[in-house]
Fold this protein.
Amino acid sequence: MAKGTKERILTKALELFAENGYAGTNVRELTASLGLVKSAVYKHFQSKEEIWNALLDEMIAYYAVRFGSAENLPPVPETAEELVRMTMRMVGFTVRDERIVLTRKVLSIEQFRDERARALATKHFLTGLTEMFTPVFAGMMEKGLLRPDDPAMAAFSYTAPISALIRLCDREPDRTEEALAQIEAFSRHFIRIYGGKTDE
């Protein structure tokens, strides 16, 4: 199904903002790259700022549905091995989905200019993962899969190194497979250190 004009504008805006930043992207360049006239863009968005805010809204929704959020939690694993598999599925998605990769680039560039981008960068690079995994780890502790502890601190201890390795994939894409292997090794290490009962 062909993309509508509004969706095409947002897709191209994401690419241009990731490449040139907000200040380095103008509506004339955006319209030209889409083969549109300005009036076609202004039919959907009144300004570059409106495009920017619509893009942030879309990125939040896209990420929440496909990756998860504190409101859209992954299921509590039934085994420690299932935690490893779930982690690798989530990480694989976030380092390979082009829109998510571009989103992280945009947030990295614009977090120092835009308050919304700064808040989203903090959420996506740090607090969001901790918030998502805290109830997951609380559930795993209740099942005896992780030894009893502060689930929020366990979630922070688990997600901070993984987040750092995801950022490595963004900076050095040729090291993605190395980073993924390190994330899987870390996940198994975490289970060895913090695990409760062993899988049957």
User: Anything to note?
Assistant: The chain has a mean pLDDT of 90.
